[in-house]
Amino acid sequence: MQNHFHQAEYCDMNLVLGKTDLEQFIGQLASGGVSxxxxxxxxxxxxxxxxxxxxxxxxxxxxxxxxxxxxxVVLQDKRLVNALQYTLIxxxxxxxxxxxxxxxxxxxxxxxxxxxQIMELHGPRKKIVYEKPIRITSDDVIRAFxxxxxxxxxxxxxxxxxxxxxTLSDALEANxxxxxRDAKIRxxxxxxxxxxxxxxxxxxxxxxx
Length: 209
What we know:
Elements: E1 5-18, H1 19-31, E2 35-40, E3 45-50, E4 55-63, E5 66-75, H2 78-90, E6 94-101, E7 105-111, E8 114-122, E9 125-131, H3 138-146, H4 150-174, H5 177-202
Antiparallel strand pairs: 1-5, 1-6, 2-3, 3-4, 4-5, 6-7, 7-8, 8-9
Helix pairs in contact: 1-2, 4-5
């Protein structure tokens, strides 16, 4: 029996949509019977989506050749979730997605439209059901430092460190030396990134703006 869906939370989201991408997103919503209208504001453009379950606003910031959808949003209607998930993958966007149902909580980390990791949470316990090897280059680090969203990355890093600490505890309890080694390596990577982010969050040099 399939678990009943409750809601999906998209965190640390960054999607860059061209004209076709935006048309596809709107088309996905409209085909599902979602009522839509636009609100123009000075700093952004807001798409208001209304269903029989909820009313949600998507804030698009104008960018060269299209729009940027960023931040966090909590959705309870699967039509909205399906449209946003499709757009996340289509635009090769970034986000951490938490899906809550009657079963385990699923947390998926997306980068460039691909799932890097999918995790099941059962109360305080977790299980990695999928993980793609990640290689961080110097260009990735430079882009992170140039970003104005470092303060949004910090809480995500702390959450990832909490998950890795649980993984390390499980591995130690199971006497799984390979898992212990992998968890320690990942924790050290996260610790160093967190230290750098916190340092740059305090004072980002003008040359990197």
